[in-house]
Amino acid sequence: MKPTPTSSSIEDYVKVIYSFTEWQDKPITSTQLAARLGVANSSVSEMVRKLKDQDLVEHEPYSPIRLTRSGLRLALSMVRRHRLLETYLVRELGYTWDEVHEEAELLEHAVSETFIQRMADKLGNPTRDPHGDPIPDADGHITMPPSHRLDELDAGHRGRVSRISDHNPELLRYLDEHGIGVDTELEIVGRRPFGGTLEVLAAPAGSKDMDRAVRLDLGDEAAVSLWVVTDGSHPGCTVQELTGGSLMSPHTASP
Amino acid sequence: MKPTPTSSSIEDYVKVIYSFTEWQDKPITSTQLAARLGVANSSVSEMVRKLKDQDLVEHEPYSPIRLTRSGLRLALSMVRRHRLLETYLVRELGYTWDEVHEEAELLEHAVSETFIQRMADKLGNPTRDPHGDPIPDADGHITMPPSHRLDELDAGHRGRVSRISDHNPELLRYLDEHGIGVDTELEIVGRRPFGGTLEVLAAPAGSKDMDRAVRLDLGDEAAVSLWVVTDGSHPGCTVQELTGGSLMSPHTASP
DNA sequence: CCTATTATTTCGGTGTACCTAAATAAATTA
DNA sequence: TAATTTATTTAGGTACACCGAAATAATAGG
């Protein structure tokens, strides 16, 4: 419960802890956190102690890690930075959606609050980034679209792609080559679970041609996450993560 | 003479070493370097050893520090980053010239080469930044305008402001309030050296009104540096630093 | 030329964020 | 439930970039 000298590592920890609960509500464990940050478990233990000292997380030994109110505030401000930066890079500097993640990852720790605000103004305060993720506002309010898991959708289901995870550039390029992006209308034409892997076949709406359908091979553990709107009406409704985790009800986060 | 894992500290050291010799040619000493970086002398000694190991500087104990060819290359790339960022922030994000320095200082360590290039393209590969400083090209070539020291100019001399140091926001705001910026036409209406300080009175060209002239009180030690073109013809000719150091001949640096 | 002053380097330490290996707690399963 | 496996934390150590204080070299003054 001390002051708050924040560092770029701290920002990363908090952001990852937040992200883990963005689309499902189980809190993250040390090991998962270590894996996502690419550091050793022991580093996490140590750092979590520090985060707790600064009142950014709640944590009892051997139990999962949860953000406090002020941890959530910090996390949402990092998420806002990241997503605004991605939007800006795509709209103003001609980046493609598969390039932006890494660059934003570095920049989010370096830019000032002024920079963020000027950028947001110039972009017209967007509420979704190029991957379809919601952008928190300056006060840390974020509205998650209501959602269902893609792996619960039946063949024949149509909808718009609402969101595609920005973590796998290779997947993004693959989807791009097949004409799939945010807001693309899709239809689930088939599905085949096997060997712990869920395979979803999707094609531009209307096509029933299984051979020409995009084959999405979805391992567990966050390898891939594609999101699909379950009704074709408005963008930004009824989406849910493909990989791991249980179905959760729609929610809104704010500090 | 080892490989080259660069860090943001190393980048700062090298950039400051370069800057010191940009407008005069005496090499920097440990103490001066420490002062400009805001670190202790002992930190500089240590770091300079490391820079030498990486073949970025030449240095014999107790003598001044000079960049090697590869040190100069790195320095010019940092200067390019910094000046392009300043230009971009002013032109694209509505920063004023007195705000940009700090922001660029942070960003220059974080952005990728791709980012720099896209930014440069969008700006049309400018060769001067908002303060009038020359921007090195992608190959590390920079052309310094030929120059005379402002403190050698006589009263009555007219010219355009070619360059104003970006290190003192307060000065920049002061000048701005008095309508002085890069490319403003000025006339030296008087001068008064006293107590180790040089005072220059300048006014918009034509005005002979000493009272309404801008009074520039120029201490030594890099407190202020204003640059004035000594002839009104083209921008980018005959400029020189105001503070400390001896007159040097025009030169061009490149790695 | 020798001494006093100033510049520079060396030495012993600090905080941050990592790591591996060892110890301990929790969960699984036999 | 006891034993094994897995998760987590603790212990001991590293690299980086910094610091103040002490030692040493260079410079300036008498």
TrEMBL record, chains A, B:
Signal peptide: none
Protein's name according to its UniProt entry: Manganese transport regulator
Subcellular location: Cytoplasm
HTH dtxR-type domain ranges (all copies): 1-68
Xref: Pfam families: Fe_dep_repr_C, Fe_dep_repress, FeoA
Keywords: Activator, Cytoplasm, DNA-binding, Iron, Manganese, Repressor, Transcription, Transcription regulation
Subunit field text: Homodimer.
Family assignment from sequence similarity: Belongs to the DtxR/MntR family.
Gene3D superfamilies named in the record: 2.30.30.90, Iron dependent repressor, metal binding and dimerisation domain, Winged helix-like DNA-binding domain superfamily/Winged helix DNA-binding domain
InterPro entries the record matches: DtxR_MntR_Metal-Reg, Fe-transptr_FeoA-like, Fe_dep_repressor, Fe_dep_repressor_sf, FeoA_core_dom, HTH_DTXR, Iron_dep_repressor, Transcriptional_repressor_C
